[in-house]
Amino acid sequence: xxxxxxxxxxxxxxxxxxxxxxxxxxxxxxxxxxxxxxxxxxxxxxxxxxxxxxxxxxxxxxxxxxxxxxxxxxxxxxxxxxxxxxxxxxxxxxxxxxxxxxxxxxxxxxxxxxxxxxxxxxxxxxxxxxxxxxxxxxxxxxxxxxxxxxxxxxxxxxxxxxxxxxxxxxxxxxxxxxxxxxxxxxxxxxxxxxxxxxx
Length: 199
What we know:
about 200 residues, 9-stranded parallel β-sheet, 2 helices, about 15% helix, globular
């Protein structure tokens, strides 16, 4: 893992969590249980403190940083989609930050909110729990249903299982040169929200 101390601060990472070897975790960072940090993610606690509570996932190519002297927290089961940038914002419990979204300084995303992909949340914006937040600048467009929150929660559980799966089965290997006859069949264990609604 690319784990770095900075000015005496050494990251604290629970042994049940998985930080990909191509991710970077720097300085004053605390990562709780069953967290996942994907390849090329950067969690940079050089100027302030970053806390990931239990069950948080920070996916591939995400950036987490802040202005000097700040402390930010991602509450339990926060889910940060591929390519998102969180700069000095606090994220509520069981929220979802969509892919390639940008959440700016001192913004507060409430519990069980969903921020749509490619949204831009302005500095100091505050969103109440269970808000669906989209756009540039991002705005609340409705309150989330129990069904949407249940779907999000199920998706996050997959990421909470992923650290153990990575630790147990991920290995650096040489590629095969042809497809083997006994190639494993990919599991199908999660449905999109649209698939669920069709039932």
